[in-house]
Design goal:
The chain is of the alpha/beta class. The protein is built from eight helices and 18 strands. It has two domains: 204 residues, 3-Layer(aba) Sandwich (Rossmann fold); 145 residues, Coagulation Factor XIII, Chain A, domain 1 (Distorted Sandwich). The strands form four sheets. The protein has a six-stranded mixed beta sheet, with helices on both faces. GO terms for molecular function: ABC-type transporter activity; ATP binding; ATP hydrolysis activity. Belongs to the ABC transporter superfamily. Keywords: ATP-binding, Nucleotide-binding, Plasmid, Transport.
Length: 427
């Protein structure tokens, strides 16, 4: 790591949102729009010397609110957050597209940005002409651009369409060329937004590899925004998590990803279940899933514990308990049961605790919850059945796979395996 290349101090960005008066029609005719504009213009001219008053149809919205951070040369930093967190606004300010309302940004070096499909290129110019135009914008001379030209074309895989205006390119072709130009024209800072999602998986992998090389081998700085936590985890060591325009976390990517994943889940849900205070008799008093990480996040392959507490007012010798783990569509993917004739809750009243410990939890990444049964086996009397309690999330962030990213619905269960390469047979 080297000197600071980006310094952001107390940065804020305000937008003004306009609303209609309540009770008015949501849709207006062209005549109404023209009439209203003319009326408003007249009012402004008549009241220009008067003191302005607050307009109830206008509202301030702070897309960014007093954020500060520093980024060193050669760092590859992820920027994550839910939709509306302020990620794109921050990148537009760093790319000098938008001015901040407050605060200061100091940037050393040239910045190449790939923010939205359609930005950075002139639609009437050909691919070849846009390559030279972007190089000139970055301050490169013609000889420097020519030296990189073949690498750009080869990476983008658009050789046949170089002399076609880019307005005729598909979105995938456009992004391939735009990324190739941004990555190969040697800017000190490369800023890449979620726009890579437009490309196919093979090209996304290619881009991630190039961004890794840009930072680790070429010593340039990369800012990467993505909703793919696998891509963020593979590419970055540091992550900035934004929430409602503020920095919620700035640090290790692994921790940032867990915080983000927890925030995406419904905050009203919890890995802890508590029975209503009005319950009586024999029932499940509380239940909890003890995951490997905080916020109900569990890393695949790590030990997991399920804990249950039973309120017993009338002990019976045939009490039994079982629970299922449900996937996102509430299908049972596995079941566990407890039936022990010597169990204390069959013999004594009080609060009794059961723990189910799994030394290596192999369910694939996804969202899960529990379904429980508490019953009397001898009479088949179901005392209590609970659905969708104690939700938790399994992630694959600690499990590396070089070929391609883990896909959400790739499988339900991932088992350990050992591969052996056999001998060669003659045909």
């Amino acid at each position: 790591m080297y000197s600071t290349i980006i310094q952001v101090n107390n940065l804020s960005k305000k937008y003004i949102l306009k609303h209609q008066y309540s009770g008015r029609s949501r849709y207006k005719s062209l005549r109404e729009i023209i009439t209203n504009r003319a009326t408003n213009l007249g009012k402004k001219l008549l009241n220009s010397s008067r003191k302005t008053i607050d307009n109830p149809t206008r509202e301030e919205f702070w897309a960014l609110n007093d954020i500060s951070f520093e980024i060193k040369q050669g760092e590859c930093v992820g920027i994550i957050g839910r939709n509306g967190a302020g990620k794109s606004t921050l990148l537009k300010i760093l790319s000098r597209i938008t001015e901040p309302t407050k605060g200061r940004v100091l940037i050393k070096g040239r910045v190449a940005s790939l923010l939205e499909v359609g930005t950075g290129f002139h639609p009437e110019l050909t691919g070849r002409e846009n390559i030279f135009l972007n190089g000139a914008v970055l301050g490169m001379n013609k000889a420097e651009i020519k030296r990189k030209f073949d690498e750009i074309v080869d990476f983008a895989e658009v050789e046949k369409f170089l002399d076609t205006p880019v307005k005729h390119y598909s979105s995938g072709m456009y992004v391939r060329l735009a990324f190739a130009v941004a990555a190969h024209l040697e800017p000190e800072i490369l800023i890449v937004d979620e726009v890579l999602a437009v490309g196919d998986s093979a090209f996304q992998k290619k881009c991630l590899g190039k961004m890794g090389d840009v930072a680790s081998k070429e010593g340039r700085t990369v800012l990467f925004v993505s909703h793919s936590m696998t891509a963020i985890s593979q590419l970055t060591q540091r992550c900035i998590l934004l929430s409602k325009g503020s920095i919620l976390f700035d640090g290790n990517t692994h921790q940032a990803v867990h915080l983000y994943t927890a925030g995406v889940r419904d905050q009203a849900e919890s890995t802890y279940y508590q029975a209503p205070v009005t319950k009586k008799g024999n029932y499940l008093a509380w239940a909890q899933v003890h995951t490997s990480e905080d916020y109900g996040i569990h890393s695949w392959g790590e030990p997991i514990n399920f804990e249950f507490a039973f309120h017993i007012s009338q002990p019976k010798d045939s009490l039994c308990f079982s629970f299922q783990i449900l996937n996102e569509i509430e299908q049972a993917v596995c079941i566990f049961w407890f039936f022990d004739s010597q169990a204390p809750f069959r013999q004594e009243p009080g609060l009794h605790i059961l723990r189910c410990k799994i030394p290596k939890f192999r369910l694939y990444m996804g969202s899960y919850s529990l379904r429980t049964w508490f019953s009397e086996r001898s009479s088949n009397n179901l005392l209590e059945k609970l659905n969708h309690i104690c939700p938790f999330e399994v992630t694959m962030y600690g499990v590396k796979r070089e070929e391609y990213e883990w896909q959400r619905d790739e499988c339900a269960y991932l088992e350990d395996s050992v591969w052996e390469v056999g001998g060669k047979f003659q045909l």
